[in-house]
Amino acid sequence: MRRIDHVGIAVPDLDEALAFYEKTFGLVAEHEEVNEEQGVREAMLVPADGDPGTARLQLLAPLRPDSAIGKFLDRSGPGIQQMAYTVDDVDETSAELRAKGLRLLYDAPRRGTAGSRINFVHPKDAGGVLVELVEPGGLDHSSD
Ligand code: MC0
């Protein structure tokens, strides 16, 4: 693991949440995207004048009620849904974790934010936390 990549928060309404985080904590969106496969509209937030290498806050709003975020909101309400780590090679890290007996959700990595490659560790194998592994893609800004 390189660093904490982002903490993901499930929200019912992305625009409302963006306004709340900017007004309350001075966090602004550096990137917004719809990911149809994941069933989310999402935004990555950073402190307006913060350290460029800082971990991001990700706001995740559901595109459909039967999506991962839709189900999470239904069951738990808004709140922290995932903890994501930056990795150099998501295939390699997934293989290492599988060898330690953890269940990875996908056989092969899928597409995440900004062209990243992602996989997840099942929350039941990680102390009740949904862990995302992120291999940054070409649009990554966090090491600028
Ligand atoms: C479910 N559980 C969780 C949890 N979601 N525990 C902690 N954190 C979560 N986020 C618990 C349930 O309470 C339940 O516990 C048990 O896990 C099994 O639940 P389930 O009925 O199988 O729950 P489902 O159907 O909601 O599926 C959970 C699962 C799903 C993690 C498999 O959410 C999933 O596939 N997630 C990966 C994709 C994802 O999260 N996409 C959205 C972010 P009990 O004790 O009741 O048995 S997209 C994203 O993140 C991308 C854009 C990116 O960053 O690049």
Characterise the protein shown here:
By secondary structure, the protein is of the alpha+beta class. It has a single domain, classed as 2,3-Dihydroxybiphenyl 1,2-Dioxygenase, domain 1 (Roll). The chain is built from 3 helices and 8 strands. Strands 2-3-4-1-5-8-7-6 form an 8-stranded mixed β-sheet. The chain binds (S)-Methylmalonyl-Coenzyme A. (S)-Methylmalonyl-Coenzyme A binds next to strand 3, strand 4, helix 2, strand 5 and strand 7.
Topology:
Elements: E1 3-10, H1 14-25, E2 27-35, E3 40-47, E4 56-62, H2 68-76, E5 79-86, H3 90-99, E6 110-111, E7 117-121, E8 131-135
The structure holds (S)-Methylmalonyl-Coenzyme A (MC0).
(S)-Methylmalonyl-Coenzyme A binds next to strand 3, strand 4, helix 2, strand 5 and strand 7.
What would you say about this model in short?
With 144 residues, the protein is α+β, with helices and mostly antiparallel strands. It is built from three helices and eight strands; from the N terminus they run βαβββαβαβββ. The chain is globular, with a radius of gyration of 15 Å.
CATH architectural type: Roll
Strand elements, count? 8
In round numbers, the mean pLDDT is 95
CATH homology superfamily name:
2,3-Dihydroxybiphenyl 1,2-Dioxygenase, domain 1
How big is the Rg? 15 Å
CATH topology: 2,3-Dihydroxybiphenyl 1,2-Dioxygenase, domain 1
Taken together, the total number of domains comes to 1
What ligands does this structure carry?
(S)-Methylmalonyl-Coenzyme A
Q: What's the order of the H and E elements? A: EHEEEHEHEEE
